[in-house]
Amino acid sequence: MTTLSTRPVETVPLDSAPPPGMRLRELVFGAACAAAVRAAARLRLADALGDVPATAEKLAQAVDVAPEPLRRLLRALACQGVFDERPDGTFCHTEMSRMLREDDPHSLRAIALWCTEPWTWALWPRLDDAVRSGGAVFQEVFGKGFFDHLHQDAPESAQVFNQAMTTSSRQSAEDVADLLDLTGVTSVADIGGGQGHVLVSLLERHPGLRGTLLDLPGVVDRADARLRADGDLADRVTVVPGDCRREIPVAADLYIIKNILEWDDASTRATLHNVVAAARPGARVVVIENLVDDTPSMRFTTAMDLLLLLNVGGAKHTRRSMVERMTGAGLVPGTIRPVNAYLHAFEAVVPPAPADAPETLVE
């Protein structure tokens, strides 16, 4: 006859570090966690939940889903700190769940959707192939390049991408403006600056400053309304459609290059060389990037680094690799400072031109 043991079962509190075996189990089910966050974002659960705790039944009615599966989704999210399940069975917001609200000033809803778009699920299982080859597998999986696929075959993903990049840029723009000392600077160029959120933040803080926004034609066409004709800042801004990998026909005291030196190494080298070719001796160059070493956000940036390998063959930088690229382009690197928990700023100056060098500056 078999008898059950009466020995107490040892339990581990939820807020303590799991043992290695359990931690590895959690990691291999990481896709479930990402899918749960995506489902919450698509269902707009965070928007439906207000400041008063609510039952799964009430939330299910608000977002038009079945109550019991929703309870299971909420419980899985609560284990990760996204929502909180109270003793009475109701659910309430946490700091993280509020960031899935559309109206939260620190909203990460667009980022959550972007990082879990349908194409990502097709690529992750091919990571070993990308590691073997050292290059992107996107073309092989989808039959065309990353951006071509997005704009031609996946317009919804393209829209999510644009929204995510806009949200991220807008949120970090103030941090960049807080960091930069513009003493002696009368002109700034935002190279590959997207819709110009960093430039807007700087111009609004420094009334005597003039700015230039350079990016691809289709990008600057959607520039922040304050920078466009009849905008509040239009009389202090020049919008230049162009490709920084080919030419940077801009003269400025300060050049800002933020989050564009990660697509591929050739683009990085070309952009930095073009800045040096265009700039006056003594001009400042500030490169702002995510790092994959010695940063509080390494779990995030190393994951993004692998995604870049998969989709475009790009890479996030280390301190050393970024300094090497800047030095190789002819810049003289200076200080490296954190912008926030996930961005670092690399300061550099353009050295004096050799005595026999031709004039290359374009006003």
Question: What do you see in this structure?
Answer:
There is one protein chain. This protein has 363 residues and is of the alpha/beta class. 44% of the residues lie in helices and 12% in strands. It has 17 helices and nine strands. It has helices at residues 20-28, 30-43, 45-48, 56-63, 67-79, 95-98, 109-114, 118-123, 127-133, 138-142, 146-153, 155-179, 197-205, 217-220, 265-278, 298-311, 319-328; strands spanning 84-85, 91-92, 187-191, 210-215, 237-241, 254-258, 284-289, 332-338, 344-349. The chain has a seven-stranded mixed β-sheet, sandwiched between helices. Helix 2 crosses helix 5 (67-79). The radius of gyration is 24 Å and the shape is globular. The termini are far apart. Residues 358-363 have low confidence and may be disordered.
Strands of the widest sheet, in order across it, are 5-4-3-6-7-9-8
**CA radius of gyration:** 24 Å
Main sheet characteristics = 7 strands, mixed
Average pLDDT = 91
- Which percent range fits the helix content? 40-55%
The helix/strand order is HHHHHEEHHHHHHHEHEHEEHEHHEE
Shape: globular
Structural class: alpha/beta
**Could you tell me how far the N terminus lies from the C terminus, measured between alpha carbons in angstroms?**
93 Å
Strand residues, percent: 5-15%
Strand segment count = 9
Number of DSSP helical runs: 17
Instruction: Report the uncertain regions.
Output: 358-363
